[in-house]
Amino acid sequence: DAGVIQSPRHEVTEMGQEVTLRCKPISGHNSLFWYRQTMMRGLELLIYFNNNVPIDDSGMPEDRFSAKMPNASFSTLKIQPSEPRDSAVYFCASSWGQENSPLHFGNGTRLTVT
Amino acid sequence: DQQVKQNSPSLSVQEGRISILNCDYTNSMFDYFLWYKKYPAEGPTFLISISSIKDKNEDGRFTVFLNKSAKHLSLHIVPSQPGDSAVYFCAFFYGGSQGNLIFGKGTKLSVKP
Fold first, then answer.
1. CB contact under 8 A, B46 and A48
2. Would you place residue A1 in the very low, low, confident or very high pLDDT band (cuts 50, 70, 90)?
3. Do the beta carbons of residue B62 and residue B76 sit within 8 Å?
4. Which of A32, A21, A18 is nearest to A71 (CA)?
5. Torsion sign, CA atoms A11, B35, B76, B69
6. B96 touches chain A (CB under 8 A)
7. C-alpha distance from residue B102 to each of A64, B60, B87 (Å)
8. Does B94 lie at the interface with A, CB-CB under 8 angstroms?
9. Is B105 in CB contact (< 8 Å) with chain A?
10. C-alpha dist (Å) from residue B84 to A12, A105, B19
11. Which of A42, B16, B19, B81 could form a disulfide with B105 if both were Cys (CB 3.0 to 4.6 A apart)?
């Protein structure tokens, strides 16, 4: 039973470059979440989708961040242009979408922007 | 404005003894409470949860306690095992929305053989 799959596991890029993070949720889950983890702020919700539709993107820090979910089995989080302060671990999670359903997380992408 | 506080960044316990992890919260709208466990280089994994209408929930070695009047959530692990060494996050739902999940900053538990 495959869990949430994220790629790449690690990404090192230079400031100003475009970064694309990818996520495949658990089959059958209809909600998908992008979180960012930093030492200072902990785990923060960036955006979440329900049935492929963005429901709440109030956590997206700036217009440089964008997320898409073209179908039920794939989502991307894009940062353009990237900045050093974007360095963090980005997690994707999925769930059944029912009230209080626990989220299932992927193993994250560690992003380093130099 | 922190709605959730895990005041102990780390905890060290001897194998076989009890581990007690704590969270305090300020938002009285929280109505569902969860604990997640995270190993290095992995994502958080759901461990146990409790509804606001209960004050205790058990699952094997893990018990979660909720004290609504004190706005306090705790996780007890008995007996502790070296494999329990991980970072533990408390998390809180409110308003029935999947997007309304607030995480604490975590407590690193080390269980020594």
1. no
2. low
3. yes
4. A32
5. positive
6. yes
7. 24, 26, 16
8. no
9. yes
10. 31, 19, 10
11. A42
The two tokens of residue B80 are: 């502790």
For A83-99, write each residue's pLDDT tens digit.
999 999 999 999 987 77
Helix H, strand E, coil C: the string for B7-73 is CCCEEEEECCCCEEEEEEECCCCEEEEEEEEECCCCCCEEEEEEECCCCEEEECCEEEEEECCCCEE
**Any A CB within 8 A of B29 CB:** no
The beta-carbon neighbor of A42 closest among B32, B96, B105 is B105
Residue from B10, B32, B97, B98 to probe the interface with A (highest A Cβ count within 10 Å): B98
Give me the residues of B, 54-83, that contact A with CB < 8 A: none
The one-letter code for the residue type at B63 is: T
Q: Which amino acid is at A110?
A: R
